[in-house]
Amino acid sequence: MLLLNTQPASVQAQEGAGLPGARYLTTIRFRLLDGGIILGKARIGTFTDSLNFIFDTGCGGISLDSTTADHLQLLPRTSDLFIHGIGGVRPQRLLDNFTLHLDGISLDSLAVQVSNYDILSSVYGEKIDGIIGYGFFSRYLVKVDYDSLKMEVYAKGEFSYPKGGFLLRPQLSHLPMLEGRLNDARDIQSRFYFDTGAGLCLLLSSVFTADSVVFGPKKKKAVRTEAAGLGGRASMQLTTLRNFSLGPFRFRQIPTYIFDDSYDVTNYPQLGGLIGNDLLRRFNLILNYERSEIYLVPNANFNQPFDYSYSGIMIARLEGKIRVVGVMEDSPAKKAGLQEGDIILAINGDTGQDMSTYQSLLRSMGPRVKILVRRNDGTDARLFMKVRSIL
Description:
Blueprint: E1 2-4, E2 24-32, E3 38-44, E4 51-55, E5 62-65, H1 66-71, E6 77-85, E7 88-102, E8 105-115, H2 118-124, E9 130-132, H3 134-137, E10 141-145, E11 150-154, E12 166-168, E13 171-173, E14 175-183, E15 187-194, E16 202-205, H4 206-211, E17 223-229, E18 232-246, E19 249-259, E20 273-275, H5 277-280, E21 283-288, E22 293-298, E23 309-310, E24 313-318, E25 321-327, H6 332-336, E26 343-347, H7 355-361, E27 369-374, E28 380-385, E29 388-389
Parallel strand pairs: 4-9, 5-8, 15-20, 16-19
Antiparallel strand pairs: 1-19, 2-3, 2-11, 3-4, 3-7, 5-9, 6-7, 7-8, 10-11, 10-21, 12-22, 13-14, 14-15, 14-18, 16-20, 17-18, 18-19, 21-22, 23-29, 24-25, 26-27, 27-28
């Protein structure tokens, strides 16, 4: 359940005397993947095929999948730098003087990271060719409208924000960082990454939750699960946070992941964690990096209830088949008899093999979910799973 704590004031940045206004350039249509991830189309260099890119404020640049780079015969150079993800650290490889084309605009002279996104492609069930982050958002003023599934792109300049929203002023150092307020065992103010590339509501580091006594001495109900990201999979705890406020907007009982930040993704104590797009998609956004401003307007998703379901199963599309790649101990999936390696043939009679549909069905609270799987020995099994709530 969501709760608007107070009526936000309208904020408008008026055009100053002699200063040019932000000029409209183009509109980019996008789709939403599981967890609210933004997926759009772009072309690179002189290649004519459109590729799938995630638009991610939590990415410090622009990156290309390594298998896509190999397919296009692009050869990256090795850098002395490393990329940190929740699942590991990888050496940075770069393509220089790169050009990216987005529906009428082109970004040239880019240094593009090359990373392996096979795990993202398998989790979302379709090819992820790259990620568009700071290298794009820092060059333009961008309006993200989740109601119409469109991004409007403007050249930098003075801009009047619409009524009914609230202006945030993040700290920008390639990634936007802003203040949020937590209230569970006690009231805490901290900073978080503003991350449209994270398909969850909140992700907190275990060091932060322990040092700040977020949940207090009384043991908070939590279940063990996994999440996938750069570097691989990582074990996490899934629970709920009593209250979280972003500006004047207050959310209650927010699904929250807690992880051991072994690879220093959050740079604690600089940050407590990140705010993901399953929460952020409840606003239409105006990203104005030039002025270090992010403007939030509640949209049609604002009062959409959070998803408290828990199954303890991870699925991925591997070699054209949807397989079970993770089963948590003591989870509904484990009790139903699901095993790693099982090939999912149908869920509730649906044989369409659509990842998004199956992920939704596996989170369905209520009647038992019927799952038809093929075992490693070639036999078929019909299983029944009762999804439970983490509350």
